[in-house]
Amino acid sequence: MINWANFISQCFNGLVLGALLALISSGLTIIYGTLGVLNLAHGAMFMLGGYAGWLTYSHTGSFIAAVAAGALFVMLVGVVMERVVIRHFYKRPHEDQLLVTFGLGIVIVETVRFFFGSLSKTVPAPAPLVGITPLGFMFYPTYRLALLGIVAVALLALYVVLYRTRIGMIVRAGIEDSVMVDALGIDVYKVFMLVFGIGAMAAGFAGIVNAPVVSIAPDAGEAILVQTFVVVVIGGVGSFPGAVLGGLIAGEIISITSMFNPGYSYVMLFVAMTLVLVLRPYGLLGTAGRE
Amino acid sequence: MSNQVSRRSVLRAGAGLAGGALLAPAFADAVFAVGVNDKPPIGTWPEGTQGDTVYVAATVPRTGTYAVQGEDELKGWQLAVEHINTGHPLLKKIAPKVTKGLLGKKVELLVADSAAKPNQAVQEQQTFINQHKIILMTGSTSSAVAVALNKFAQREKVLYVTGISGSNDTTGKDCVRYGFRQNFYGETAANAIGPVLVKAFGKNRKAAFMTPDYTYGHTVTKSVNDYLTKNAGWTMVTNQVSPLGTQDFSQYLTNIANSGAEFLINVNWGRDAVLSIQQAKQFGIIPKMTLVVPYQIPFLAKEAGPELTAGVYAATDFWWTLEDRFPLAKMFVDAFYKKYNYRPEWGANNSYMSFAIWARMVSEAGTFYPPDVIKQYEKGETFPSTVGDVHFRAADHQLVRPVIIVRGKKPSDMKNNEDYWEVLEVVPGEPLMQKPDAFGCKLGDYT
């Protein structure tokens, strides 16, 4: 028995969740695609964006300043991380890369916990976006609607950077074959630093814009990390459009399944991932040959 | 990775057990030789009681969904240990034979973060047993941890008193001889709040439930729903079951928004409760539906804001304004406030009481020998508490105690910044409880 109002509502819900997953996953996927490093600290970056934004908000009272601070601070952390730690691991085995990013993730989470405690923090939505909007089929929190727009703009900005600029061209070339890019005389390591920064920024930005929806806590990134991995696998490693598509698919699977039984929503997500791995091992929009 | 870690810890635990088994006969000889008594060693006894200090250990969530409640509980245990060691007047009301320390020994509390995860809590308690020969375990907040530690206590023959644990199973189908629970639980909460809800809202209403997906959530939801359907013809139109630690409740709330319910009975707990209630407000479900919290969450009003908890009915174990009714409650609130500068929530009260009661049982029994302490509990003697006279039920090791019904105050009615709830009723405990064997409790052996 399908309640159509509920079905439409859940589809819409899936869209909002999917957009957010798409944004976080695109950061993860371009880092992995370009650098070949699977960044297990990506969830911590998401959480860090929330905290940087929260701190800024509590000092300035400005949501826009909070978003800017969340995104830029995490980009900075990403760049420093790449320069100080990650770059020493490009030539090392994947296990070492996993371990070092896993470790960095723990350090970041526990540092935040040390300074700010385990109590969850809230960043209120900006005043004009507080409240409920009737959509006809359901009432929807206004800020979540706005979130859909905000994330869409951010994804568009990422698209422009990756597909309409010279640096984006180099990044995409790096994803296909970084050795060749290096051979063409481009300082591929500078590009790596930039990519890591941008990828981290996507997570940080998502962390702060999502904060008014869920409130933030030091362990907020753990669950998100798992979901973004699934998104990247479904969409195809290194593929920006794949991350967007994968994010939306994941969001819809989680939402629509939960209409029948929420307990199975993540089961279905992993079923979908398994199917993709069996039928299209490189992901829906991935290409063979990428790391 | 995780396989290796767990395999190693299993090996370590196994080695510890094997070592313990080898050592046991040697200790028995030593004990007989010095003539301490004629009882064979059991668990950490007598080894853990031979120094000047006895150790007790709490595994409490200091991180994750239940961290806020865990910190409050921890303060209750710390205060109780301090009171045992100094012979504080409040503690002596509950345990008159305590002087300074327990049976002449200083009590020391060891603490570890369980993150509300059963396997982590068990591992940490195992380490405390190995390294400190602890004579008492505590800590839960999640009933999944309480059930795991119950079984562990029975296996290790070391006493366990639960922290917060609301599942019927803790003193129901998963009860053990070595485990005791001070606080209220799903069945008593349901039978206490049920009549209040029916009186306030009438019969044949439609309710949506939100249930965390583990023993606490399922048993509390069942007890509350059973009461309301059988006694007042209420219908459960949807039951949204979410995993512990859920951040975004939008899918669950969407289902509820479309369910036609009039009441939102939220069994979620800790941060899950705060987030789900805040998000229910964002979706306009509150105030469209009436929120009910059948199993009170410490700090809910503070975290979610009193605007959201105003008018909300909840069943709880303790609320600080009970100081107007019970002299011991006043002593407790005053002592706690003096030390920690805020008024205790029910988690802290539960911790304090469970340790104070343990001190009573040990001092009355005059020995730390676990079977004798257990038998002291099982005598079922009446003793004073911060909510009036109480006693233990021998058949399932559940304290027979009142359940407190509270209703959230409007911010304008609050007399101070912690005056969130108004006590409506103190419901006597005995009639709220199921028959001791109704949930399948079999306590197990003493030795």
Describe the secondary-structure layout:
The complex is a heterodimer of chains A (291) and B (447).
Chain A: H1 4-35, H2 42-60, H3 63-84, H4 94-116, E1 132-134, E2 139-141, H5 142-164, H6 166-183, H7 188-214, H8 220-235, H9 240-260, H10 265-279
Antiparallel strand pairs in A: 1-2
Helix pairs in contact in A: 1-5, 1-6, 1-7, 1-8, 1-9, 2-3, 2-4, 2-7, 2-8, 3-7, 5-6, 5-7, 6-7, 8-9, 8-10, 9-10
Chain B: H1 2-34, E1 53-60, H2 67-86, H3 89-94, E2 106-113, H4 118-132, E3 136-138, H5 143-156, E4 159-161, E5 179-180, H6 186-201, E6 206-212, H7 215-232, E7 235-242, H8 250-257, E8 263-266, H9 270-282, H10 285-288, E9 290-293, H11 300-304, H12 306-309, E10 313-316, H13 327-340, H14 346-365, H15 370-378, E11 383-385, E12 388-393, E13 398-400, E14 403-408, E15 421-427
Parallel strand pairs in B: 1-2, 1-3, 3-4, 4-5, 6-7, 6-8, 8-9, 9-10
Antiparallel strand pairs in B: 10-14, 11-12, 12-13, 14-15
Summarize the structure.
Chain A is an all-alpha fold and 291 residues long.
What does it look like?
The complex is a heterodimer of chains A (about 290) and B (about 450). Chain A has about 290 residues and is mainly alpha-helical. Chain A has a domain at about 20-220. Helices cover about 75% and strands about 0% of the residues of chain A. Chain A contains ten helices and two strands; from the N terminus they run ααααββαααααα. In chain A, strands 1-2 form a two-stranded antiparallel sheet. The longest helix of chain A is centred in the N-terminal third of the chain and has 32 residues, at about 5-35. Chain A is globular and about 55 Å long. The N and C termini of chain A lie far apart (about 45 Å). The mean pLDDT of chain A is about 90. Chain B is α/β, with parallel strands linked by helices and about 450 residues long. Chain B folds into three domains: about 1-40, no CATH class; about 40-185 and about 325-400, Response regulator (Rossmann fold); about 185-320 and about 405-430, Rossmann fold, CATH 3.40.50. Chain B is built from 15 helices and 15 strands. Chain B has helices spanning about 1-35, 65-85, 90-95, 120-130, 145-155, 185-200, 215-230, 250-255, 270-280, 285-290, 300-305, 305-310, 325-340, 345-365, 370-380, and strands spanning about 55-60, 105-115, 135-140, 160, 180, 205-210, 235-240, 265, 290-295, 315, 385, 390-395, 400, 405-410, 420-425. In chain B, the strands form three sheets. Chain B has a seven-stranded mixed beta sheet, with helices on both faces. A five-stranded parallel beta sheet of chain B has the order 2-1-3-4-5, sandwiched between helices. Chain B has a three-stranded antiparallel beta sheet with strand order 11-12-13, with no helix packed on it. In chain B, helix 4 (about 120-130) runs parallel beside helix 5 (about 145-155). The longest helix of chain B has about 35 residues, at about 1-35. Chain B is globular, with a radius of gyration of 22 Å. In chain B, about 55% of the residues are buried. Classes of the chains: A mainly alpha (about 290), B alpha/beta (about 450). Chains A and B meet through helix 1, strand 2 and helix 9 of A and helix 2, strand 7, helix 8 and helix 9 of B.
